[in-house]
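Narrative of activities, Objective 1.

The group set out to show that a structural description can be obtained from nothing but a protein's sequence at a throughput compatible with the screening campaign. Below is one input-output pair from the validation batch, recorded exactly as produced.
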Amino acid sequence: MAVASAAVIAAIGYGMRTQWFVGRFAAEEEIQVKVAAAKKIKSPRVIEAVGQLQAGRETAVISLLPGVLKDMRVKVGDAVKKGEVVALLQATELIERARMNEIAVKAAAADLQDMRSQLENTEKKLAMTREAYRKDLIARRDMEEMETLAKGVQAEYERAQARLAQGEAAVAQTRYILSLTRIMAPASGVVTSRIAEPGAAVAASEAIMSLADPAIMRVVITLPAAEARLVHAGVAVTARVPALRGKVFDGSVSHVNMAAEGEGHAWAAEIELRNTDGTLKPAMGALISVPLDEKRDLIMIPYAAVFELQGKPCVYVIEDRRARLRSVTTGAQKSGDIVVTSNLAEGEKVVVSGQSKLRADRYVRIVE
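Output recorded for this entry:
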């Protein structure tokens, strides 16, 4: 009886173990996934710095004449075109001078017309006198007197021509000076500042406002001296602008200046960003990424391998046919890949497809 009972108990135990084994095997059914190996690449080391956008390539608008500013036709932020009138100088005296010069020119033109008629009559009389002298109808002295008179009329005519030319030159000069009272934009751009206001006295060649090319924005950043030595003008950079949802813009280093404090302190680098669509505005913040003239090893994996778990980037790494959950630190993205800066080694295989079905430590079957 005892033997029979033991046999029954053993059979029941065997059945329970079999059910547990089958259930566990079913629970750990292999999940099909696709993987990619982490690869190591040589890439320029990148330094990041924050700066504020400023208007780029500023151009001064100057008054070519001394005078009093009468009117400013644009305000800060207005877009202007090259050759557009942006300000006026008071020109009352110049206008009066131009009026008087034009009256003088009209008088000189009338005098010249009278002298031309007088000269023509004198030349006819001279021709008749010479003909009479040729026929011995008058004395030589009479002919010489007529020639002297004709020379005098010719001289007066030439002086009348000179007076008219001088008057016309004065009119042209006054008109040119008058044109300079209409101050024009030397280039297309956006008004960034008004240096003078209506009523102000300005000197010749004094700036009254400034313009900036809207297609270019500037950012000044500071770099540690050691890294700044590895940056030079012309290096391509990128700028990420938080105010524009992290949109990235291309640009370049225009120049690098050593800080006045000396070599051990930060250096200033000026960056120019292309702004062809006018999206960037002054005072926006930007995170500038500057590649340095030295290479470093980077681990790259497909961007599809990374997912967030509790706000941290994670990946599934294949170890012993299991998907091991691992948190990582990520960096820049490039052409569908992303840099991993910690907790992943070259050659390790990460899951790039099928993560949604996985849990940590699940068995997987790798498919192509």
